[in-house]
Amino acid sequence: MKNLYLIDSYLKEWTTKVESADGRFLTLRESAFYPAGGGQPCDKGVIACSGKAYRVSDVSKKNGIQLDEEGLHAGDSVQCALDWERRYMLMRMHTAAHILIAVMYRDGKVLVTGNQLDAEKSRIDFSLEEMDRQKIDECFGKANDIAKWNLPVTFAFMEREDAEKIPHLQKLAAGLPNIDELRILSIGEGSEMVDEQADGGTHVRSTAEIGEIKLLSVENKGRSNRRVYYKVE
Ligand SMILES: [Zn+2]
pLDDT tens for residues 85-97? Predict the structure, then answer.
């Protein structure tokens, strides 16, 4: 299955053929359906064949695409469409998460312990000894400034060997699964580089598309973990 979302996150409709089918599970020759991973939930959408539409209920790297009912077979020509409204919201949320995490790390050396995106609200867990609401508010202010700068969000595929030669990507590559080619995502460029890391998720192409990043709430999760909820609008 060729993953089209890695090359073009704005592709919302495409035609292809069913590569393999097993009951309600199938793989496509080309797919823009994002499989759950890296804190981003899977895409939803529709696959149509001969006038009948099948709903995509789950997408995973392990099991492929799961439909709400069976009926498709290997070789079938299909028209696919993403639930674009939801996906676009997840793209804005994902790029916003990278900026928030970069600002928290740059200004407070605060590390992330987990994150989960969703279309309604997303959360990031930060390792913060003190519940410092003011610091979090300041970081949201800075993240919103960056979003307004209209910075380009770009990516490049890089051989693992080459990524390991670049000092700030070195450590990151070491912590990644053993794959030969990495997709390096950059927010900003040159002296305005905000974030650069290996990432397989879907992002907006300019930070201006994020809109306003709004802090919703902060919860204590253990002594040093702070769970921050946000949305974009
Ligand atoms: Zn990411």
Answer: 999 999 999 999 9
